[in-house]
Amino acid sequence: MAKPYTIALCYDFDGTLSPGNMQEYDFIPKLQSSPAEFWAHTRSIAKEQDADEILAYMYHMCKEAEKKEIKIQRSDFRDFGRGVELFPGLVENGGLSWFKNINSYAAQYGAVVKHYIISSGIKEMIEGTAIAGEFDKIFASTFMYDLYGAAHWPAQAINYTTKMQFLFRINKGILDINRDINSFMPEDERPVPFRRMVYFGDGSTDIPAMKLVRTQGGYSIAVHGPGVKRPESLLSENRVNYVAEADYREGSDLTAQVKRVIAKICAERAVETEGE
């Protein structure tokens, strides 16, 4: 019998697993601000300071929370995360969750699915969501904390270019962000070749990661919310393989397409290992 092998499903978070930006559910309302005001101010900071927008919004979160005397310790971020809405099918609700469904389907072919988040959102918030335990690793922006446990400075900011670093970490099996990933590793020694990787994203910040996975032989899927215009240009520009609504329930177009991709990956693996 062939040895088990890994298929990696890699997800953006905001707009991909959740309909909105995670800060908009509980955190921004607590500031007595609107999402439009918060993000407009963030863009203004980034422009004035010639700063990365991810660093700018993290700075803005800290400063606004300080003004309003709102605690933002790790536990507070996780509390905010509990209020984040998720797309249908991700959590069990009268049927198998997406994760159990996909894992079970791949297991029929002898494959093991590992799930990863690569997000510009806040890691501590994601850790508070109902699906946090489904992921083998969460790569996301995070804060440093002072002596009193309050967030006061970005520790890691993940933007559209640095997302690609984490795809290579998954590819090489080097998940500790303090370990160097630039040393040479032969392709046949990498635990998750790109051809056994699927990337899920929704917007412009995902395009470099989508393109990387696709051009390296893997699969990229652009998802969109219900009633939102399909990003057909990503297909015509060869940046993604498929476009589907972000419906993770059994019977949805997205679930059917991902199962076809898994079946194809597994068939190719069987051909590669025939006679071993």
Quick structural summary:
With 276 residues, the protein is an alpha/beta fold. It has ten helices and seven strands.
Q: What is the topology?
A:
Layout: E1 5-11, H1 27-30, H2 35-49, H3 53-67, H4 74-82, H5 98-107, E2 111-122, H6 123-126, E3 137-145, E4 151-156, H7 163-172, E5 197-201, H8 207-215, E6 219-224, H9 232-236, E7 242-245, H10 253-273
Parallel strand pairs: 1-2, 1-5, 2-3, 5-6, 6-7
Antiparallel strand pairs: 3-4
Low-confidence parts, pLDDT < 50 over ≥5 residues?
Answer: none
- Number of helices, counting only DSSP H or I runs of 4 residues or more: 10
**Secondary-structure element series:** EHHHHHEHEEHEHEHEH
CATH fold naming: Rossmann fold
What is the beta-strand fraction?
15-25%
Strand order of the largest sheet: 4-3-2-1-5-6-7
Mean pLDDT: 93
**So, CATH architecture?**
3-Layer(aba) Sandwich
The CATH class turns out to be Alpha Beta
User: What structural class is derived from the secondary structure elements?
Assistant: alpha/beta
DSSP strand tally: 7
List key phrases describing it.
276 residues; alpha/beta; Rossmann fold; seven-stranded mixed β-sheet; 10 helices; 37% helix
Describe the 3D structure.
The chain has 276 residues and is α/β, with parallel strands linked by helices. It has one domain: Rossmann fold. Helices cover 37% and strands 18% of the residues. It is built from ten helices and seven strands. Strands 4-3-2-1-5-6-7 form a seven-stranded mixed beta sheet, with helices on both faces. Strand 2, helix 6 and strand 3 form a beta-alpha-beta unit. Helix 2 crosses helix 3 and helix 5 runs parallel beside helix 10. The longest helix has 21 residues. The radius of gyration is 19 Å and the shape is globular. The mean pLDDT is 93.
